Amino acid sequence: ALKRRKPVPKCSECSDLPELSICERIVGEKSWLSLLLQLRDTYSKSGIACLTGEEMGNFIQNLDLIESEDREADPCWQVKWHLGKLIKKMMSRSYEEKMSAVNADRALTLSHTDGQPPRSPVNRIAAHLTGNSNRRNSLSPRNSLPRRGNGQKINNWESSRKGHSFLYNVELRNGELVIPQTGFYYIYSQTYFRFRENENEDSDLLEQVRNPKQLVQYVYKLTNYPEPILLMKSARTSCWSKKAEYGLYSIYQGGVFQLKREDRIFVSVSNSDIVDMDKEASFFGAFMIA
Predict the structure, then answer these.
(1) Quick one: which of 90, 205, 234, 282 could link to 253 by a disulfide (CB 3.0–4.6 Å)?
(2) Where does Zn(2+) bind (predicted)?
């Protein structure tokens, strides 16, 4: 008669394993090492089977609709769930990158359709004007400022690349720099004053004190506004030693201003009769910074 085999004891820890033979081997002759190797192979194969047993496309599409307590206890479902979350995250990131590129192209296209030229590197815009040694022709007649303004405008600057003067993408018109492009500009100017006392003056008066001079330099902007707009002004009252042959003074000022296309800037001075238009000492310029 056939001997009845003893029933295999149930193993509560192994109830979730894919094959019952594993529990049998726990009480059998197989070593723990063999058991661990078999567990590794078993779960590796079952993980791959999870991905091939059901169409992943449908699973990912319905990922948020199929969550339940029963499925959370299923190892195969957990593999699919984590993989689905990873795939959706990667797809979302790829979509955002593509949309950013599309929006950038669309903004560039709209700027073209609005009549705005495509952005290109800003052209070099700069000017440096130096004094003209022919002082008589450099200063405009007194009180000849356009509309209203103080001082006497310096009309003729040297701009023909002689010495240090130059013009880059800027026009000089009647002593005024014409701004070609809206932006922020650094404007600067220096005026050199040279004064010599009249030898016919009373010698007793000369020995006491030199006549003080009020020296003022103005930088104006011309727009469509009826009057010129004062941008900068620098002034000083100067006197010098009675033993000095000349009184020599210079006034410098500079600043950043927002200018619009077709604005014009110019320099005017007080006491134009003592202005020395030496090219290294009297100058005027501007350049675009942004």
Answers:
(1) 234
(2) 239
The CATH number given to whatever domain includes residue 198 is 2.60.120.40
Q: What is the pTM of this model?
A: 0.54
For 2-54, the pLDDT digits (tens) are: 555 555 555 454 455 455 455 555 555 556 566 666 666 665 555 555 655 55
Q: Read off the amino acid at residue 265.
A: I
**In the beta sheet, which residues pair with residue 216?**
235
Residue range of the domain that includes 155: 126-288
**Does the residue 90 lie in any domain?**
no
DSSP 191-232: EEEEE---TTS-HHHHHH-PPPEEEEEEEEEE-SSSSPEEEE
What the block records as the tokens of 194 is: 């040279």
Q: What is the pLDDT of residues 118-136, one digit of tens each?
A: 544 457 899 999 998 765 5
- Please report, to the nearest 10 degrees, the dihedral formed by the alpha carbons of residues 274, 250, 143, 178 taken in order: 130
Question: In the chain, how many domains are there?
Answer: 1
Does residue 272 lie within any of the structural domains?
A: yes
Q: Is 11 annotated as a binding residue?
A: no
CA dist 191 → 88, 92, 97, 126, 251 (Å): 70, 65, 57, 19, 5
